Amino acid sequence: MLTWHILTGIHLKKCTGSYNPVIFSANSNGNGKANLAPQEKEKGKGKGKLNSITKHRHSVRASPQNGSIAVTGGFTVKMSIAKPLKKLASCVILDLDGTLINTDALLSDVLGGFLSKYGKQWDGREVHKTLGKTPLEAAAAIVEAYDLPCSTNEFISAINPLYSEKWCNIKAQPGANRLIKHFGGHGVTMALASNSPRENIEGKISFHQGWKESFSVIIGGDEVASGKPSPDIYLEAAKKLNVEPSSCLVIEDSIPGVTAGKAAGMEVVAVPSIPKQSHLYTSADEVINSLLDLKPEKWGLPPFQDWVEGTLPIESWYIGGPVIKGLGRGSKVLGIPTANLSTEGYSTVLSEHPSGVYFGWAGLSTKGVFKMVMSIGWNPYFNNPEKTIEPWLLHDFAEDFYGEDLRLVIVGYIRSEANFPSIESLIAKIHEDGRIAEKALDLPIYSTYRDDPYLKSCVKDSSHL
Ligand code: RBF
Ligand code: MG
Predict the structure, then answer these.
(1) Catalytic (active site) residue 405
(2) In this structure, what are the phi and psi dihedrals at residue 269, rounded to the nearest 5 degrees?
(3) What spacing in Å lies between the alpha carbon of 95 and ligand 2's midpoint?
(4) Helix, strand, or coil here: 60?
(5) How many CA atoms lie within 13 Å of 422's alpha carbon, on the beta-carbon side?
(6) Sign of the alpha-carbon dihedral angle for 18, 21, 23, 26
(7) Pocket of ligand 1 (CB under 6 A)
(8) How far is the CA of 438 from the centre of ligand 1 (A)?
(9) What pLDDT was estimated at residue 448?
(10) Which parts of the sequence belong to the Riboflavin kinase domain (predicted)?
(11) pLDDT at 335
């Protein structure tokens, strides 16, 4: 049992929790204000506001002088309550393919072309057989799955040059640059640990500015006896970093990678790179939807500070097309009429953006520009078979506008898609998203996009606005 001494102004309050020592965290919005879980509210009465905290491996001390709590490692977390902490990490070990870079798109590109020479078609269904595998294993799986008339080694020799030629086109996963800059800026040691040969790792990251210098250690699959799921790569990384495996936080997209990290005795956050697979990552300490959802403070690491009023500014992106009839649930079941966009022709854009709730501005050719909040993904509550884009224009329209040209500029992120115990709770959450977006879009960082030429060019007559 850990006792937390919480200082609120001049009152010293005491609350107890029966969880593991040391870890506290901010709430899921990452905005630094931690919310109480119901049972903690009960125990701690939930009124104690922490202004600062001194965190040791086995204790948390409030400072009576200024009511603030200093955190070992040189950062201060403002929060209203302590939450069960997971485990304290002092450094981060990252996987590369699928975690920091979007290698999947490249794989389908290269394999699609290659297999067509054999009269076969890459359908992406075999991708899970390659995730987290060593190059040899991944190649063998494809040769077998497609019954190719060549040996695994011949396949590798033929594919490798096609692959490395495209390294320059591999995009960073959303949130990867932000994460690297954040940890680098806060002096958190980072390592890269991948099944790829070291030379390939270096080749791939050379196209991403500032990455190579950010990693204190890089370990490739060719530098250890066995690749993931063996713990070797991770253990070797910890050894080279001169840290205990137990103080390392691993971030991984694949199941073999998660297995490797756990076998090495590390804390593992999984970021599955293929959809609808979260339930398979049972050995991970946490499964998140994308790097945008990482909450470093859960692991005793410095929290991101770029969340603004429950929203995360992202690099703006654009999408548009005629409004199509969705499944008709929006208005009928939820009372939330979404102006669904056809995803035809947008498969690349869609695959590049993690599912989740985003917001921005929407231009309708005859009506003007409106605030908008939208979901991208499979709607876990309904479990849609396809990834859809469902923008909700925050305005009461007198009539439907199917077929009209809709343009969107997406400027921020709110949360990952979730499942809900009832339709009422789903509806309540979507309304909350709407309020968050509505308010945030008045902030200068977001409001300037209202005048984006992309939106204006589709608004035929905006004189009435
Ligand atoms: N569906 C879900 O299953 N989970 C969600 O977390 C979720 N969030 C949404 C957030 C917004 C802002 C909007 C507009 C929709 C969201 N939806 C979500 C999708 C909703 O279920 C969908 O629009 C209806 O199914 C209508 O097709
Ligand atoms: Mg990977």
Answers:
(1) no
(2) -100, 125
(3) 6
(4) strand
(5) 3
(6) positive
(7) 326-327, 329-330, 334, 336, 338, 357, 373-375, 379-382, 390, 392, 417-418, 426, 430, 433
(8) 17
(9) 97
(10) 312-442
(11) 83
Reported as half-sphere exposure (CB side, CA atoms, 13 A), residue 155 has a value of 23
Query: Distance between CA 20 and CA 84 in Å, rounded?
Result: 7
Beta-strand relationship, 54-55 and 60-61: antiparallel
152-164 vs 135-145: helix axis angle to the nearest 10?
110
What is the distance in A from the centroid of ligand 2 to the CA of 106?
13
Please give the single-letter amino acid code of residue 361: W
Which residues does 389 contact at the CB level (< 8 Å), separation at least 6?
Answer: 319, 340, 341, 343, 346, 350, 374, 375, 376
DSSP conformation letters of 136-191: HHHHHHHHHHTT-SS-HHHHHHHHHHHHHTTGGGPPBPTTHHHHHHHHHHTT-EEE
Phi, psi angle pair for 458, to nearest 5°: -100, -10
Half-sphere exposure of 154 toward its Cβ, with a 13 Å CA cutoff? 6
Q: Count the Cβ atoms, other than its own, within 10 Å of residue 315.
A: 9
Instruction: Write the pLDDT tens digit of every residue in 354-402.
Output: 999 999 999 998 889 999 999 999 999 999 888 889 999 999 988 888 8
Paired tokens of 155: 């396949």
Minimum CA distance residue for ligand 1 atom 15: 375
Q: Is the bond into 380 cis (omega within 30 degrees of 0)?
A: no
Distance CA 281, CA 258 (A): 8
Ligand 1 pocket: which of 426, 432, 436, 438 to mutate (most atoms <8 Å of CB)?
A: 426
Strands 286-287 and 267-270, how do they pair?
parallel
Name the stretches of the chain with pLDDT < 70. 1-86, 326-330, 332, 458-465
Cβ contact 253:133 at 8 Å:
no
| Degrees, nearest 5: CA angle 67-75-48 | 35
pLDDT tens across 422-432, in order?
A: 999 999 999 99
Which amino acid, one-letter code, is at 39? Q
Q: What per-residue confidence (pLDDT) applies to 409?
A: 97
* Catalytic residue selected from 104, 390, 433, 452: 390
Classify the C-alpha dihedral 56-59-65-71 as positive or negative.
positive
